[in-house]
Amino acid sequence: MDFPHLRRDTKFPDLQTVDVYEFQNTFDYTRWNEFTKVRLVNVIWNSDYSDVVKFDTNAERDAWFDSIEDYFEIDLQQACRVVPEGFIKLPIPYDVMARYNYLYVDMPIATDANHPIDFETTNGIRRWYFFIDTISYRAPNTTEVRVIPDVWMNFQNDVDINYMVLDRGHAPVAYSDVDEYLANPIANNQYLLAPDVNYGSDTIVRNADYMPFGDGEKWLVFLSTISPSDIVNIGSVSGWSSDSWTNPTYSNTGDRYGYQLQVNGYNFGDAGDYSGLSVPASNGGKDRLPNGVYAYATDAQYCFGDGNAIQGMMSRIPNFLRSVLACVVVPLDMISFIGDLIEVAGYRFYPCIGRESTAQNIELSKDMFDFPEEYQRFAKLYTFPYSSIELTDNDGRKVDVKIENTSGMHARAITSLAFPFLNMRVFFDGINGVGSESYTWQRINGSSVSKSMPNGDWYENCFDWDIPTYAVYMSGKIAYNLNNYNSMQNARRDALVGYHTSVRGTNTAMQNSIDSENTGYTNVDASATTMVTNMANTINTQIANNNAATACNTANTNSANSHGQTIMSNNNSQITSDNSSTNNCIDSTTVVENQTSIACAASTNLANINASAVNGGLGGIGMAAGALAAGATGPVGAAIVVGGSAALGAMTAATTGAANGSNSMLVAQCNASVAGATMSRNTSLAIHAEVANAANQYEMNADRSTQTSNTNNCMNTQTTNTTNCERTNTNNDATTMRANADRTRDTANANSGYTREVAILNAKEILENAQASARSRYKDSGNAAPIQIGSYTGSMSPDYYETRGIQIKVRTQSDSAIRQAGDMFARFGYALNQVWNVAESGLKLMKHFTYWKASDIWVDDRSSSNNAVNSAIETMFLKGVTVWSNPDEIGRVSIYAN
User: Residues 520, 619: one domain?
Assistant: First the structure.
């Protein structure tokens, strides 16, 4: 190394070799000018570099300093070069110097621009900025000043800081917008999550947004085992009436057996015809679960209160409700209608399933956190632990959500109506993950469906609620009707069949009896008419015979008078002959009369026996017939035999026919037979007497003609009287026979009518008693406990208290903790612990000042003076520095206005 200011033979200077007196100083100091300027000013920052000012250019820097109005400036009159960090003596009184803390020096080119010293250049640093550290009094007009170069002010535009590991600062504040962050926290939290100051762990609820599930229009869903294809054919109760238990009335029909046969208003049961109802069952599965249960929705507002639809369904379609396993109440927005509307008995049902998913966005805004206005701009206050979201339901389930881990948070709800899995699941996607994955799921019916699975931790933020089920109640009467209607109708038919059978038999028996009585009366009437006719014929014959005898007697008398002995002889012969004939007639008549009497007596006895066996109603007829038979002692003709045959026929009818009618006919026939025999006998006796009297008269008075004439007249008179008597008697007998038969018929018919009335009354009582028994059972069913359809499951409290839902609570730390953290963020920014590209962002990021504190920094000092500058600047950022845009604002603006 050469030392040009030493002699060539001088060794490296040291104590042994250096001869200071031999130093060859060839520098010409007369080349220095006297124009070095020193200006004293005051600045707000100091040499610890906690605050610095960043000027974009040195020109801006110098212009600002030159604009300071309060300054003290001197021009040095001697050549003087001030080196950094040292002592200088300035011709300034101490009291003046004491008023300033900063100075800068403008030095011209040494020694001037026209005569620069060796190695001087035009781009050297001509202005230097110094902190006045200490001052010392040296003379009244001289003060010694210790100055420290302001490295940052001197070299800020001569060094480059490209990167630093930013431990804390305003850079992340400047690059984090609250609104953008809250719109998508997980995508905008890159500068916000380093651990930072924390002044409390307790949190309070700043805001709560209640998200109800189930608050919409309510629909009642019946879970039934009847499929949609079957439900339209289940039938309904028809012929509805308020009371079908009326007492029956009776009327006649036009049939022979139809008296009181028609029964009107004879009903079993109440409120209509249940015969067409059915309860079909479905098996198998639908699309997801093989449960065989279908859901039918109807508007819930019509299902409650007096006269509600459920009550109507109980009356009209109780069989449908019998198929119901449970009832649930869900909001309309939680179900999806499938298929066509179904209407049964006027009631509308919508086949439905649980809705797959509904989404509700959770949008966050600054207002929800209730921060003071000066802190609302700090995005980090919307991260944990300063703020968080708490999701709670009313069953004690709680989920804490860090806002910074959310992304477009959605609440999604899925409702299942697949009995018995009745569930409402609410979960939140967009937490701890972004997006979703798609997949395909094949269902049991062979169909496939596209699904998506959120990438976030939705299962950790899931709320499962059982959908509570409710029961409906069927009255005992309706249940009894539903269970027993067809049996009751069968019992009704059985009762009617029994009644009809009894009434027809009773009516037929009465009509048969009437027919028999009428036939008997007709027979008696015919017999009486025949008897009268026969008697008239007999009397006419008798009169003719008597007239012939009278003529004969007259002729004989006249002949006797003429012939004498001949006539007497003839008369004697005639009398003998007549006597013989008369005797024969009498004997024959007597025999027939006895036979007739015996036959009548036997018939009468048999009739009496039959009558007694039946009902003892015609005993008097036998007595009359016996009396008539006992009086018949004269001869009778062939008519007696005919009468006897009639009596025997009557007896036969009495043993086989109806007792009343047959006995009447038998007695009438017997009376007619006996009467005929009696008349015949009386006639024969009269004739015999007349012949005998005539013979005697002739024999005794054959010679007396006058006596014969008188005798003939007497005979004619007697004959007339006898025939008149016989005619009268015969007519009387016929009249009596008819009257007896008529009375017998009337009595028998009346008795038959009484018997029928009693039988029909009995049948009616039996019929009505069957109805009364059924009605008693039905009334008893009304006292039975109602039948519960479905069951109660799940917790009903959220529905009862109307609190089913999720409460989205915004929680923050206390006001004190927020203010402490907020002030730290306002003054010093956020902790970051990330590499920051300073070259890209610059150092002035905030409105007034920007704080920087690095844990590591790279300072490019290739344009500066030396490594001391590098070290000083590095130290400044490692310690932490506030970079100001305007030096006049240092310490003079609010940290909240930055």
Answer: yes
Using DSSP bridges, classify how beta strands 142-149 and 387-392 pair: parallel, antiparallel or unpaired. Answer: unpaired
For 378-436, where are the alpha helices, taking DSSP H only? none
201 plus 131 within the same structural domain: no
Burial of 649 (0-12, 13-18, 19+ CB in 10 A): middle
Let me know if residue 309 belongs to a domain.
no
Q: How far apart are CA 480 and CA 777, in angstroms?
A: 9
Distance CA 236, CA 242 (A): 16
Radius of gyration of the chain (CA): 75
Q: What is the DSSP string of 796-842?
A: -HHHHTT--EEEEEEEEE-HHHHHHHHHHHHHH-EEEEEEEEHHHH-
Does residue 661 share a domain with residue 611? Answer: yes
Lowest mean pLDDT among 211-215, 384-388, 662-666: 662-666
Residue 326 lies in a domain: no
Asked whether residue 886 is domain-assigned, the answer is yes
Which one, of 787, 798, 803, lies nearest residue 471 by Cα?
787
Contacts 24+ apart (CB under 8 A), 374-378: 374/822, 374/826, 374/896, 375/818, 375/819, 375/822, 375/825, 375/826, 376/178, 377/178, 378/173, 378/178, 378/822, 378/825, 378/826, 378/830
pLDDT at 787 over 80: yes
Helix (H/G/I), strand (E/B), else coil: 68: coil
Q: Tell me what pLDDT residue 323 has.
A: 93
Q: Bridge-partner residues for 835, per DSSP?
A: 165
Bridge partner residues of 148 (DSSP): 131
| Separation CA 168–CA 877 (nearest Å) | 10
- In this prediction, residue 670 has a pLDDT band, given cuts at 50, 70 and 90, of very low
Whether the predicted pLDDT of 593 surpasses 70: no
- For 26, other C-beta atoms within 10 Å of its C-beta total 7
Cα distance between residue 98 and residue 770, in whole Å = 132
What contacts 566, CB < 8 A, 6 or more positions away? 559
> Could you count the other beta carbons within 10 Å of the beta carbon of residue 456?
23
| DSSP assignments along 320-373, one per residue | HHHTEEEEEEEEGGGEEE-S--EEETTEEEEEEEE-S-EEEE----GGGGT--G
The average pLDDT across 420-445 equals: 87
Under DSSP, is residue 73 helix (H, G, I), strand (E, B) or coil?
strand
**Whole-structure pTM value:** 0.65
Using the 3D structure, point to which of 745, 773, 795 is the last residue of a domain: 745
Q: Enumerate residues 6+ apart whose C-beta is below 8 A from 107.
A: 36, 81, 82, 126, 127, 128
Tell me the pLDDT tens digit for each residue of 226-274: 999 899 999 998 876 655 678 899 999 989 999 999 999 888 877 688 8
Domains: count for the chain = 4
72 located within any domain: yes
Token pair belonging to 553: 């007697």
Domain membership of residue 606 as a residue range: 511-745
Per the listing, tokens 């974009």 go with 56
Last residue of a domain, one of 412, 436, 467: 467
What local confidence, expressed as pLDDT, does residue 244 receive? Answer: 66
Phi/psi of residue 330, nearest 5 degrees: -135, 155
pLDDT, residue 322, reads 92
Q: Which helix (H) or strand (E) element contains residue 692? A: helix 659-701
Give residue-wise pLDDT tens across range 17-60.
Answer: 656 556 555 655 555 556 678 999 999 999 999 999 999 999 99
Q: How far apart are the first and last CA of the chain?
A: 56
∠ CA(49), CA(52), CA(57), 5° rounding?
135
Q: Which residue has the higher pLDDT, 362 or 101?
A: 101
Do 732 and 585 fall within a single domain? yes
Give the closest residue to 356 by CA, choosing from 334, 379, 374, 373.
Answer: 334
Backbone angles phi, psi at 340, to 5 degrees: -90, 155
